[in-house]
Structures
1.
Amino acid sequence: MDKPRILIVDDDAALSRLVGLSLEKTRLYQVRVENRSRQALACAREFQPHLVLLDVDMPGMDGGAVAAQLRADTSLRDLHIIFFTSLISQKEAGQNLISRGGDLFLPKPIDTAALVHSIEIVLSQTPTVA
């Protein structure tokens, strides 16, 4: 059985690489990292991830705009999106991020075990289709 594909989209190259390596070390996922928000859609089309771990605050396009592009692409309709950020709390985010196409919101930083647990929960659910 193929491992679920996880695309990490975050402008913080060091953090996204660390998260990517942490997920790869679990041997549960295939992981790809994209640090340019404007390239996220093209990367997702090529990689066909099951889940995108998407930073909220990025230059060029914010996470909500990237999520909207991903949701509008019919080839990515079964994609799960987890938003993550260090800028706002889950309470502050409220339903805003979920209403923008995300399945879940996670604060940064997050330890690998908690992230894997959240990914597994989201992957077990029926995908959100906008």
2.
Amino acid sequence: MELLKVIQQSLDEPGFCRTLGIRAVSWDPNKRSLVLRMDKKADLEGGAGPGHMHGGAVGAFVDTAATFALLACGVENCPTANYRLDLLRPVFESGVTARATVRRRGRLLAVVDVDVIDDADRLVAIGRATFAILD
């Protein structure tokens, strides 16, 4: 089965990712880069007022994008050890797209960088996740 379909099936399983409504967009094996999409939903709005996406939703999106980019590279059994999120601007009345790129895959750790872009093509957040490789 095509890799993006497998990723989408995992995202659609009941649970948190399904609640976020994340969709798999593209995978570039040469760049080890996965693109995911999360549309604007009222359930994702935060305390800044109507139309503002909650920063926690953006953080969960970054962690999810990084995880699935690593899984797309064939790394399994790799829990998130740490992730950092810099929220650069508010997401208002917009969905977001994440580009997660695997920077390093070592024997014990992997590092993935994530850029989050809004519908106006503005960089709204950047993240970096470190994963423990248990296999």
3.
Amino acid sequence: ETLLGKRVDYSGRSVIVVGPSLSLHRCGLPREIAIELFQPFLIRGLIRKHLALNLGVAKTQIQEKEPILWQILQEVMQGHPVLLNRAPTLHRLGIQAFQPVLVEGRAICLHPLV
């Protein structure tokens, strides 16, 4: 039963749609997925900027999606590429790294030529 499906922390799954305004090395990441992927970095950013006193307050701010959260998320995403996998991964181009950009909606956006 557990051989076919396993849960992976800090990962997300979504539909891929075309994003012609993106450059080849960027991918559009929905806000919900970005919060899940970068949650530890967001917590650290909130505490370092003295916007949260402790871990519990930081998690509450993330759940309530405070407006300051998006600015910190933009800063965090600049230095952390994300890996995108298109199943089935039969060769090495099935997994690629991209620089994430926040987008509205629930779908991951990619350049048409990728």
4.
Amino acid sequence: LTDERPSVRQAAAWAAGWTGAAGAALAVPALRDRLEAEPEPGVRAELLTALVELDPEGSGPLAAGAIGPEHPPQLRTAALLACADAGLPWTRDHHAAAVDLLPLEPHVSGRYDETRNEPVHHLTLTLLERDTEADRDAVGALLDAALRHDDPDARAEAA
């Protein structure tokens, strides 16, 4: 996590996220410490994803704090996905951030996390699996915004 090469730090963060319960006690503190110091957006995105994989309850609020426009698009997109994965309520702020970032796929390219390489699809499935009216409405609103977007790539992501 402290290698001088961002690609190595990114790979280490991704690998740590796959350690599961067996590695969480050691990995979570190291990932949190690195997230505070990490300057590279792609590495920060991988760190945040790993934290939510290992500790969704403890890291969900951290993800929610990273969706704002003051953060780089890679981190914001990872944060949106992490919020959904952590089971946090999908709010107007989440919707606004997702629409602001459309199309989302460019913000996940180059990530080791290939389970979320189609972000609109991932958000749609994750929210629909919750099986609540609010989440179904959120999916409808996101897809509607993407389909009405000026960028053809955003529309393609919703198709």
